[in-house]
UniProtKB/TrEMBL annotation, chain A:
UniProt name for this protein: ABC transporter permease
Originating organism: Parasulfuritortus cantonensis
Annotated compartments: Cell membrane
Transmembrane segments: 25-47, 88-114, 135-160, 180-200, 212-233, 253-274
Occurrences of domain ABC transmembrane type-1 (ranges): 86-275
From TrEMBL, chain B:
InterPro entries found in the cross-reference section: AAA+_ATPase (IPR003593), ABC_transp_ATP-bind (IPR050319), ABC_transporter-like_ATP-bd (IPR003439), ABC_transporter-like_CS (IPR017871), Oligopep_ABC_C (IPR013563), P-loop_NTPase (IPR027417)
Domain ABC transporter: 13-258
One GO BP: peptide transport
Naturally occurring in which organism (per UniProt): Parasulfuritortus cantonensis
SUPFAM superfamilies assigned to the protein according to its UniProt record, in alphabetical order: P-loop containing nucleoside triphosphate hydrolases
Stretch forming the signal peptide: none
Keywords linked to the UniProt accession: ATP-binding, Cell membrane, Membrane, Nucleotide-binding, Transport
One Pfam family, short name: oligo_HPY
Protein name (database record): ABC transporter ATP-binding protein
Sequence similarity: Belongs to the ABC transporter superfamily.
MF annotations from Gene Ontology: ATP binding; ATP hydrolysis activity
Domain of life: Bacteria
């Protein structure tokens, strides 16, 4: 299927850029997010120290010219760890949501389009996944899979499959009954092309909006799991891990937990702003003229 | 020379089971949407299907398009049973038979530009090389009287009249041999309606296209179509040349429909009494007997069959006299 003609720039701008740009708070969130992304990308060049280099002589120091944001109990530089931590948080957040989205959308599409027994089976599996709170499900999986960044992504992705599958299925059921799907079939459009050209584009925008909002949940869950000691392996620079390490010294050296905690809070607020903005811009049920 | 037969319908029936919900639901009865429809369409024919809402016009067309299976009887496209076409024949059928939906806007993917909507059947059936696509799309738009700039728009940016014309342009894009249209001019501006009707008429007269046109507007039917079939409760009650039938209806229902249609300078005479009865529990005898001003005892006992009478087919025990 030669699906050649690219969308002209003007149409693209009209449909995607203008609605987002109109959301003020989303632009603020996007700006903050951009700072994090740049920081994460440039981490190897703008970090002042190796994030895992320990210097016990310089442990528990407050912010100074040498260590801009201070050091933790092992003498690791908090500023450098913060940058590398942002990298990890963003990668895990986006990767787990992307993986969960792809699998969930595939399950939802299959259930909605095939129907019958297949749909029943897939939806019962989805119900099973949805019966557990995300954190519990991810914890159970980390316990089975073992620690590590990759396993963390799989565990988080699994906890997102359920919501995406259910959402996709209900949208597919709605789109499937639209006359344009029948019209396409009548014209002889092959099934794969009907799904790709006619079903997917009409269900994808609420799913992407939902995906954007889930990134912040993923990052929060990831930090939570690491904080509980069932996430990434120390001494990987991870915010949850950093907060956990600083907990014992919270009265003597509050910056150890405070710095990553603040970074996490600001990122989550920014992501939520972007998510809400995306929803307001593209979700038809909240769209205003 | 006999013109080639395009569609043959042999006693087509369509029944729906009612009230069957869930695994343990009991059927509350059967709805006969179509009951023994016999029809033949030859190349170049233009047939109007008229009747009140619920008479089975749309169901008939959906069965002819293969969108719904016939519960009983056979639908032949050319020489082949529509339900048993092999993939190659099915693909040919998809190209040769185009359908224009009543809900024109709903029949278009809201995420595609008009250009892509029109190009879809062309690309699908490889009717034009990719390089000529823009030109062909503009040509199709011009054919239905729309400016070429429309190609860049999305369906929800077009007005009701424009979107209907795009629907017709899409039907033409596949270069079909048969066009079926469901109420394609209802609710259109009079001038736009005339334009669309003229376009369809030209296509039939010059292009040799076979047209099946659902309408409840007898004026439209007589302008556009050479043949007319009047449906009542899933059955054809009168069928034949449009001029003869609308000039001299022989079935009381046809006459009732014509009287219900307002005319200039004449008061609205007693239209059809009552509602179309429910097709779930059909009365014995002629199904029109309950509303027929001419009904006699025989009508309530035996169901009349569609019989050949002077160049047309009528299903009535006591057809109206032809006024001389």
């Amino acid at each position: 299927m030669s699906d050649a003609t690219p969308m002209p720039a003007s149409a693209w701008r009209r449909r995607f850029l203008t609605p987002i740009a109109r959301q003020r708070t989303a632009m603020v969130g996007l700006a903050i997010l951009a700072v994090y992304v740049v920081g994460a990308l440039l981490a190897p060049w703008i970090a002042s120290h190796d994030p895992t280099a320990q210097d016990l002589m310089a442990a528990l120091q407050g912010p100074s010219a040498q260590h801009w944001l201070g050091t933790d109990s092992f003498g690791q530089d908090l500023y450098s760890r913060l940058l590398y931590g942002a990298r990890l948080a963003l990668v895990i957040g986006f990767a787990s949501v992307a993986l969960g989205l792809v699998v969930g959308v595939a399950i939802g599409l299959a259930a909605g389009l095939i129907g019958g027994r297949t749909e029943w089976l897939l939806m019962r599996i989805t119900d099973g996944l949805l019966a557990f709170p995300e954190l519990i499900l991810a914890m159970a999986f980390m316990a089975v899979l073992g620690l590590g960044t990759e396993n963390l992504v799989y565990a988080l992705a699994l906890s997102f499959v359920g919501p995406f599958a259910r959402m996709t299925r209900s949208d597919v059921l709605q789109v499937k009954s639209q006359p344009y799907i029948e019209a396409a079939r009548l014209m002889g459009v092959p099934t794969a092309a009907v799904i790709w050209r006619h079903v997917l584009p009409n269900v994808v925008s609420p799913i992407l909006v939902q995906g954007g909002m889930r990134v912040s949940i993923a990052i929060l869950l990831e930090s939570g799991l690491s904080f509980l000691g069932i996430g990434v392996v120390p001494p990987t620079p991870d915010w949850g891990l950093m907060i956990a390490e600083g907990r014992a010294f919270i009265t003597m050296a509050p910056w150890i937990s405070g710095v990553p905690g603040l970074a996490l809070a600001i990122l989550l607020v920014a992501l939520n702003l972007v998510g809400d903005g995306l929803r307001d811009a593209f979700d038809p049920s909240t769209q205003r003229e | 020379m006999e013109r080639q037969t395009v569609f043959t319908l042999l006693d087509v029936e369509r029944t729906y089971e009612l009230g069957k919900a869930g695994w343990f639901g009991k059927s509350r009865g059967r709805l006969k949407a179509l009951d023994g429809v016999r029809l033949e369409l030859r190349r170049g024919d233009s047939l109007a299907l008229v009747g009140e809402s619920g008479s089975g016009k749309s169901t008939l067309v959906r069965i002819m398009l293969g969108l719904e299976p016939a519960s009983d009887g056979r639908v032949l496209y050319g020489q082949h049973d529509l339900g048993q076409l092999d993939p190659a024949a099915r693909k040919r059928f998809a190209r040769e038979v185009a359908f224009i939906y009543q809900n024109a806007r709903g029949s278009m993917n809201p995420r595609l530009r008009i250009a892509d909507i029109l190009a879809e059947p062309i690309r699908l059936h490889r009717l034009r090389p990719e390089a000529e696509m823009t030109g062909r799309v503009a040509e199709l738009l011009a054919r239905v009287g729309l400016p070429a700039e429309m190609a860049e728009r999305f369906p929800n940016e077009l007005s009701g009249g424009q979107i209907r014309r795009v629907a017709i342009a899409r039907a033409l894009a596949a270069e079909p041999q048969v066009i079926m249209a469901d109420e394609s001019v209802a609710g259109l501006d009079v001038s736009v309606q005339a334009q669309v009707l003229n376009l369809l008429r030209d296509l039939c007269r010059e292009g040799g296209i076979t047209l099946v046109f659902i309408t409840h507007d007898l004026g439209v039917a007589s302008y556009l179509c050479e043949r007319i079939a009047v449906l009542y409760l899933g059955r054809i009650v009168e069928q034949g040349p449009t001029g003869a039938i609308l000039g001299n209806p022989r079935h009381p229902y046809t006459r009732g429909l014509m009287q219900a249609f307002p005319k200039f300078g004449a008061p609205l005479t007693a239209p059809l009494k009552g509602e179309i009865p429910s097709p779930v529990n059909l009365p014995q005898g002629c199904r029109f007997a309950g509303r027929c001003p001419e009904a006699r005892d025989a009508c309530r006992e035996t169901d009349p069959v569609l019989a050949e009478q002077a160049g047309r087919q009528v299903a009535c025990h006591f057809p109206l006299e032809v006024a001389q």
